[in-house]
Write a structure and sequence with these properties.
Low-confidence stretches: none
Shape: globular
Number of strands: 2
Mean pLDDT: 79
Strand order of the largest sheet: 1-2
Strand content: 5-15%
Order of helices and strands: HEHEHH
Distance between the termini: 49 Å
Helix content: 25-40%
Number of helices: 4
């Protein structure tokens, strides 16, 4: 895996690994699918072009291969080239740094998702260093109905 295969080419085109990630994510968004897709770190190709309902199922579909795959959640509006390049670069740098995805049975998978905001980066770094979930499973950490604590 080489870093230069993620940068724009002199003619302004994006390299194939970036195009593959972007095209796969755009296809799932266009089909209005929601879920997770497994991608190969080496060339950005999708495992099987399937969209799995959960991160855990995508990881299990790749037979929990911690050395060759990364996982992305489908976004409703697809993915721009710059973002495809950034997530592929992030996943490769995690791998090069010796980090591997957590066990698919572990529900807090912050370490394997790209932190977009500065506070997310700090939280991901703390989790990577500690090697365990940041929050207890009974503590809600989102504003979606399924993430709220029961009254």
């Amino acid at each position: 895996m080489v870093a230069h295969d993620l940068e724009r080419l002199p003619n302004g085109e994006w390299p194939d690994p970036v195009k593959r990630v972007k095209d796969e994510m755009d296809m799932h968004a266009l089909l209005k699918q929601r879920g997770w897709v497994a991608f190969k770190l080496e060339d950005g190709s999708a495992l099987d072009h399937a969209c799995y309902p959960t991160w855990n199922e995508a990881v299990k579909a790749a037979k929990w291969d911690r050395d060759r795959f990364f996982y992305l959640e489908v976004q409703p509006d697809g993915m721009p080239y710059k973002e495809a390049s950034a997530v592929l670069d992030f996943a490769r740098k995690l791998y090069a740094g010796g980090y591997r995805i957590p066990n698919p049975e572990w529900t807090d998978h912050m370490a394997s998702t790209m932190p977009l905001q500065p506070h997310d980066r700090k939280r991901a770094l703390r989790q990577l260093i500690s090697g365990k979930p940041l929050l207890s499973p009974d503590i809600p950490y989102g504003n979606l109905p399924n993430m709220r604590k029961a009254n």
